[in-house]
Design goal:
single chain; 15 strands; alpha+beta; 4 helices; globular; three-stranded antiparallel sheet
Length: about 160
């Protein structure tokens, strides 16, 4: 249970479907950087947070968008893509395309493929822990959300 404007609320699974890059997420008002997220967002307890923006969880950028949001979401990991996301609703597939490789080169990484959908969570010491889900495709329909909730159940 959390509160918004002083009222008790339960925040379920939150799905942010927008454009992104490792260091920013694009919102209606413009780009919102990882640094802004850490400084300006309030901590909230929720059942889950999925960021479908491309490269929001790019593993070669330790301070990526997913890591920033993980510092603000209590109890559950943030789910984000290590690569570019191709969406055909309800499916969202994490891919290694030219944008993904541009980010890999920028960080002088030697990776040859992306790690799909990742779980980002802050541990008790304030470190961000990244765990692989083992999948490159998630679905945000009723069945897909149930599978994601199953993934998050251990948290």
């Amino acid at each position: 249970m959390d509160s918004i404007d002083g009222k008790k609320v339960i925040i379920g699974m939150v799905f942010i479907d927008t454009h992104a890059a490792p260091g920013r997420i694009l919102l209606p008002g413009g780009a919102f950087s990882s640094l802004q997220a850490e400084k300006e967002l309030q901590s909230k307890r929720m059942d889950g947070l999925i960021i479908s923006g491309c490269n929001a969880g790019h593993r070669d950028f330790p301070n990526n968008v997913a890591a920033a949001f993980a510092r603000k979401v209590e109890c559950v990991p943030v789910i984000a893509s290590d690569g570019t996301v191709y969406s055909q609703f309800p499916d969202h597939t994490s891919c290694a395309d030219s944008d993904f490789y541009d980010f890999v080169k920028q960080q002088k990484s030697s990776r040859t493929d992306n790690d799909g959908w990742l779980l980002y969570q802050e541990d008790e010491s304030g470190n961000i822990v990244v765990e692989e889900t083992g999948t490159k495709r998630i679905s945000v329909d009723e069945n897909g959300i149930a599978k994601l909730e199953g993934l998050l159940a251990k948290y």
